[in-house]
Design goal:
about 0% strand, rod-shaped, about 80 residues, single chain, mainly alpha, about 80% helix, 2 helices
């Protein structure tokens, strides 16, 4: 369901939207796609930050595991 709304954009931004919309001249669709892309990028960035936090929190234990595995391989 679409909901009619009003937003205020700079002239520069509106020109970019119009150029992207091309002959279709569907500003709403271009803005909707931009917001969806922005939201997806933000979600990826937040997920990556959480993953990095987990990796950093477990780094010492992971490094010990790798060192032990390498030591076993050297023995063989």
């Amino acid at each position: 369901m679409r909901v009619k709304t009003s937003i205020t954009l700079s002239e520069k931004t509106l020109k970019i939207v119009d150029r992207l919309a091309g002959k279709e001249s569907n500003r709403s669709r271009i803005i909707e796609q931009a917001v969806e892309a922005f939201a997806a990028a933000r979600a990826r960035s937040e997920r990556d930050a959480r993953d990095l936090e987990v990796i950093n929190r477990r780094a010492d234990a992971l490094n010990r595991e790798v060192a032990e595995a390498l030591a076993i391989q050297e023995e063989l």
